[in-house]
Design a protein that fits this description.
By secondary structure, the chain is of the alpha+beta class. It folds into 4 domains: 4-43; 53-87, no CATH class; 114-196, PDZ domain (Pdz3 Domain); 202-392, 2-enoyl-CoA Hydratase, Chain A, domain 1. It is built from 11 helices and 19 strands. The chain has helices at residues 4-39, 54-66, 73-86, 98-109, 137-141, 162-169, 222-235, 253-260, 307-317, 376-380, 385-392; strands spanning 94-96, 114-115, 118-123, 126-132, 148-152, 155-156, 176-183, 186-193, 195-196, 202-207, 210-215, 240-244, 268-274, 278-283, 295-300, 321-325, 333-341, 344-354, 370-371. The strands form 5 sheets. The chain has a 6-stranded mixed beta sheet with strand order 10-11-12-15-16-19, with helices on both faces. Strands 1, 13, 14, 17 and 18 form a 5-stranded antiparallel beta sheet that branches. The radius of gyration is 29 Å and the shape is globular. 29% of the residues are buried.
Length: 393
């Protein structure tokens, strides 16, 4: 049986604990944010500073009370978000609204909608087929590179831009489109059923014992496509490889790592250094380097950027490849995308990347080992001196 003294002591302790708890709660309530800011770094957490938007609200009030016109509040808020992100001063840190985010994701995945599967371009003032994409309606119908667009669904397209013609060719999946071309001196017409375009990020062609691997972007499928290509190259007995990264604006760093794994075995392919990410060494995978002993030339140009520069830079620094073409774009930073709700997205620079020898390419780019230009005259004449020189090397 508990004594009255013990009961009194216990009650007193409870009162003391309650008082301390209330006092602590009051203190935390007033200073909680400050306390969290002190302890968060020790817990590995990050606390963002708060911005005082009172001046922004004041600006809006003055605008609203004086502007002779209609103010769309949603557009004003979007403009504020866009301006806030742009003020970071980094070209690669951007705000995207819903439509822009959707377009960004489509571009990254190669989703160009439904069509016939050709790449268009202007040659000698005429819109022509530059390339017929594999396993698509145009290839099955017999469309060829060099065909000049004359009409789409019996409507002349002569004089239209390549973008305008592409828009007319595209349409709903399952709907047919008739396209008339000029091939040499002959007019040829094809009726094709539009399909969702199978726009592979990596394709392989052969010129004798040279395998030409064209990588247009680094997406989620590039690594697996490179694996299949490596097996095919070995099986076909190719002795040399041209890795064409011209016009490749980058994509996923992980895809670049995957591609490099077929030349480099468990070697550092880049160093990432960031304020919040820390310093990280990214390596190629072990046991995949099936192309390590094949003489390789990498084609680059001013459109070769980011993940494509990672691949080109690493292959050269490990003496696995010679670079041919023109100076690359020069993008030595890494971005991630963050969904901020309502379909909107931020693309944020989170780190800088460095080649295995510690070179950051921001504003510098990679100088090729052998400079070979590709002129408008070359394009109009359907010549590719860069690829020709790569094959020679």
């Amino acid at each position: 049986m508990e004594s009255p003294l013990n009961k009194k002591t216990t009650f007193g302790n409870l009162v003391l604990v309650a008082a301390i708890t209330l006092l602590f709660g009051f203190f935390v309530g007033i200073n909680g944010k400050d306390i969290w800011r002190e302890i968060a770094p020790r817990l590995g957490a990050y606390v963002s500073d708060e911005l005082d938007f009172s001046s922004v609200q004041k600006t809006y009030e003055v605008l609203d009370n004086n502007y002779d016109g209609y103010l769309d509040k949603e557009l004003l808020i979007e403009g504020a978000k866009r301006g806030l992100v742009a003020a970071a001063g980094d070209d690669y840190t951007i705000f995207m609204n819903r439509a822009e985010a959707e377009e960004f994701n489509k571009d990254l995945s190669g989703d160009i909608g439904a069509g016939i599967g050709v790449e268009l371009g202007l040659r000698n003032g005429k819109v022509v087929v530059l390339r017929v994409l594999q396993d698509n309606p145009a290839m099955r119908a017999g469309v060829q590179a060099g065909d000049v667009f004359l009409a789409v669904d019996d409507e002349s397209v002569v004089g239209l831009s390549s973008d305008e013609i592409a828009t007319k060719v595209r349409g709903a999946v399952g709907k047919s489109v008739t396209v008339k071309f000029l091939r040499g001196e002959e007019e040829v017409t094809f009726t094709m059923t539009r399909e969702k375009i199978n726009n592979l990020s990596l394709v392989v062609e052969y010129a004798g014992d040279v395998a030409v691997v064209r990588v247009s972007r680094f997406d989620e499928d590039t690594g697996s496509l490179m694996g299949k290509a490596a097996d095919e190259i070995v099986a076909n007995g190719a002795k040399k490889v041209v890795l064409d990264l011209r016009g490749n604006g980058g994509g996923y760093v992980s895809a670049a790592q995957d591609v490099l794994s077929y030349w480099l075995d468990n070697q550092v392919v880049l160093e990432e250094k960031g304020k919040w990410t820390g310093d990280n060494s990214l390596k190629s995978s072990r046991g995949k380097a099936k192309l390590a002993d094949l003489k390789t030339v990498v084609l680059v140009d001013g459109g070769t950027a980011s993940a494509a520069e990672i691949v080109a830079g690493a292959l050269r620094e490990y003496s696995k490849a010679t670079l041919v073409g023109t100076k690359t774009f020069g993008k030595g930073s890494v971005q991630k995308t963050v969904d901020i709700g309502s379909g909107e997205m931020l693309k944020i620079t989170i780190a800088k990347w460095y080649t295995p020898k510690g070179i950051n390419l921001n504003e510098g780019g990679l100088e090729p080992d052998e400079v070979v230009d590709l002129t408008i005259e070359d394009l109009n004449a359907n010549r590719d001196p860069q690829l020709d020189r790569a094959k020679e090397l």
